[in-house]
Amino acid sequence: MFRHIFTVRKTEKAPAVKFTVDMPSSLEDVDLIRKRFGTPERMIAQACRQWTVSVAVGIRKRLPDEAKAEAYASHYCDNGAKDTFVQTVTIDKTEAVERFGCTPEQLAYAESKGVKLA
């Protein structure tokens, strides 16, 4: 068992009200699991829903590349580690100039921001 402390506000500007409740900290805390979640199965279902919220952030970073997003989701562990993914963009230099009218200064700026020019 552990003491979970949290605050809730009625509105964004309202004062926070502090609450303290006992929460299960292991599967042996059966009484608290039942008290807080109803059943162990429901506790697991709640954890799965929160996992979905957590993994969605990294998936969005990897879309529209569905293969990268799928690989991320299948290997994701919600252990608090920071996602180090950095989106990369590659642009053909000739196309950027001819099709989009980019100037050399704009291309240099894009490169300085991490855009790879081919």
How would you explain this protein's 3D organization?
With 118 residues, the protein is an alpha+beta fold. It has a domain at 88-118. Helix content is 47%, strand content 17%. It has five helices and four strands, in the order ββαααβααβ. The strands form two sheets. Strands 1-2 form a two-stranded antiparallel sheet. Strands 3-4 form a two-stranded parallel ribbon. α1 (30-37) packs across α2 and α2 (40-62) runs antiparallel to α3 (66-75). The chain is elongated, with a radius of gyration of 24 Å.
Strand order of the largest sheet: 1-2
Q: Indicate the percent of residues in helices.
A: 40-55%
- How many alpha or pi helices? 5
Uncertain stretches of 5 or more adjacent residues: none
For the termini, the CA-CA separation is 57 Å
**Content-based structural category:** alpha+beta
Roughly what is the average pLDDT, rounded to an integer? 92
Q: What's the SSE pattern?
A: EEHHHEHHE
Q: Tell the overall outline.
A: elongated
Number of strands: 4
Biggest β-sheet strands, sense, barrel? 2 strands, antiparallel
What percent of residues are in strands? 15-25%
Rg value? 24 Å
Task: Briefly say what this structure is.
The chain is an alpha+beta fold and 118 residues long.
Give the arrangement of secondary structure elements.
Layout: E1 2-8, E2 17-23, H1 30-37, H2 40-62, H3 66-75, E3 89-91, H4 93-98, H5 104-112, E4 115-117
Parallel strand pairs: 3-4
Antiparallel strand pairs: 1-2
Helix pairs in contact: 1-2, 2-3
Summary keywords:
single chain, 118 residues, alpha+beta, two-stranded antiparallel ribbon, two-stranded parallel sheet, 5 helices, 47% helix, 17% strand, elongated
